[in-house]
């Protein structure tokens, strides 16, 4: 079967390199591998750099805009692309180890110390296209990985039937891909990948081709299967919901560099980059600490609370917090917390107040999203409020947000 397309990890979405396994609670020997990757990899003039460390069974979401380098890093992890420099290790064993060529190498390229081929890595690659074998039934597609690893036909078929049941396709095993819907095909692809028990599973935008009605169910099912099998995984996506549902850890890649990383809740509650803030749906203002507050480069001052836990304020009254003067700080607050007016607000409650100019009006989650500049901040208003205030592009306004709504984070 080794000649069939898809038998190699990273090709056509199938997996090889480990013995197939039936679904169920992971045994210690099936627990996902520890990933340690530190690499620099180029495609043409573009270069991506990353350090990724995952404990066995952890799931990492790799977020970023199109062209950020996410798929480039995934290809290197799968063994489909040779890095310029660095290493990739699973459970301490080198899959890739490359050193940059010395200055006198005369353009010979990187010096390859170790490069295990895709078929020998025990690494699976699941793309957004299911890429099932069209001439095989769903059952045979799922059984293919275990069969390629030497599992008997009877055992592999029994395992495949169990995996199809786990992904909600019981009774559809005799159907070929053309007889299945797009969502059903993706479920088969997920079952096929997990049936081969990869040490590391790589998922490249696995839900991008699914419709809005199918994607949530497939996403939840994949989460359950990753947890049940104890599979270490890296999920490349531009959708923050994938990170929320699937991932223990999140890394944000922009222009080939990781700009934010850590536990998923921390990254989304306390973003450190504008892109992370945009996908988390919050405003982010950057500056430096001054007497417990944030001061922007333009001298705008933000008072706030130091968060404790998942976004809860340690000092709900907005009192000053202990931040070393001059330290890089980020202020985070929701667009719904921003108050927009035509005049400077008056009142005794503690507020952060500043003048701004409207740059655009867009559809928002609950009405109209008003985008402003100096600094770039979004405010969510009802359509009636926008009409009553007569807001339009170029309108000068005053913005305010209570200090209790602002979380200050060290960067």
**Regions with little confidence, pLDDT below 50 for 5+ residues:** 1-19, 25-30, 308-321
Q: Compute the number of strand runs.
A: 23
Highest-level CATH class of the largest domain: Alpha Beta
CATH architecture of the largest domain: 3-Layer(aba) Sandwich
Average of per-residue pLDDT values: 84
Q: Portion of residues in helices?
A: 10-25%
Q: Sheet bearing the most strands, described?
A: 6 strands, mixed
| Number of H/I helices | 9
Oligomeric nature of the chains: single chain
Coarse morphology: globular
Compute the number of structural domains.
2
- Rg (CA only): 25 Å
Kindly report the CATH topology of the largest domain: Rossmann fold
Termini separation: 52 Å
Say which CATH homologous superfamily of the largest domain is assigned. P-loop containing nucleotide triphosphate hydrolases
Strand content: 25-35%
Helix/strand-derived class?
Answer: alpha+beta
Strand order of the largest sheet: 7-8-9-3-10-11
What does this structure look like?
The protein has two domains: 28-260, P-loop containing nucleotide triphosphate hydrolases (Rossmann fold); 281-410, OB fold (Dihydrolipoamide Acetyltransferase, E2P). The protein has nine helices and 23 strands. The chain has helices spanning 70-78, 138-148, 153-166, 182-195, 215-229, 240-246, 264-269, 274-280, 383-389, and strands at residues 35-43, 46-54, 59-63, 85-90, 93-99, 111-115, 123-127, 200-204, 232-237, 249-254, 257-263, 283-290, 293-295, 301-302, 307-308, 312-313, 328-333, 339-341, 351-364, 367-373, 377-381, 396-402, 407-410. Helix 4 (182-195) packs parallel to helix 5. By secondary structure, the protein is of the alpha+beta class. Strand 19 and strand 20 (367-373) form a beta hairpin. The strands form five sheets. The protein has a six-stranded mixed beta sheet, with helices on both faces. The protein has a five-stranded antiparallel beta sheet with strand order 2-1-4-5-6, with helices on one face. InterPro entries: AAA+_ATPase, ABC_SmlMolc_Importer, ABC_transporter-like_ATP-bd, ABC_transporter-like_CS, Mo/tungstate-bd_C_term_dom, Mop_domain, P-loop_NTPase, Transp-assoc_OB_typ1.
